[in-house]
């Protein structure tokens, strides 16, 4: 990923992972040196003070989180940021793409992450694809999952189901009725340090295909971060 020809933002992400961020060309510029800007996105950020400020805000929040998260959280954050940058550059090809809104949403998302989250599964967990929300419902637990792939056709996954907790895992949609409605598909949520890992559970009889609550080539799999408030989908 970190190779010659990569975009400046992606190269800086790799530098951040190694702990070596180059100095900015100007104090009011973005987090990267505009003299080395190559892509359309990088040049647009350099040309607009408001976009430059948003880029600095994202970089500051990202570095602060890297210093505060545990090892699984840092690994997940680097992957999430890489996905955001790749999705941003792809979406920039759209005529209706709003770079300022995208950067604003990303900054707000990073700033909302709790590096030392509460115990259990309650609350909102977010990543570049969407949200997982857990709450008590009577004597049980309810989970709402909403994700969207940021490209190419924006397929979604939407699931509202009960959750059964067992140690550090929570099985979503495991009741007999829910399994019947969802063709046997469930979702396993696992607490892994500061993150919540989500994994689709394929029924034995379903060798191919997707669950009925997910669009084609969409998935829920991935690591989510505890956030202070619902942030929608920061990738859009």
Automatic annotation (TrEMBL):
One of its GO terms (cellular component) is extracellular region. Residues 1-25 form the signal peptide. Gene3D superfamilies: 1.20.1270.180. Residues 34-116 form the Lysozyme inhibitor LprI-like N-terminal domain. It comes from Azorhizobium caulinodans (strain ATCC 43989 / DSM 5975 / JCM 20966 / LMG 6465 / NBRC 14845 / NCIMB 13405 / ORS 571). PANTHER family: LIPOPROTEIN LPRI (PTHR37549). InterPro entries: LprI-like_N, Lysozyme_Inhibitor_LprI. It comes from the Bacteria. The keyword Signal applies. This is Lysozyme inhibitor LprI-like N-terminal domain-containing protein. Keywords: Signal.
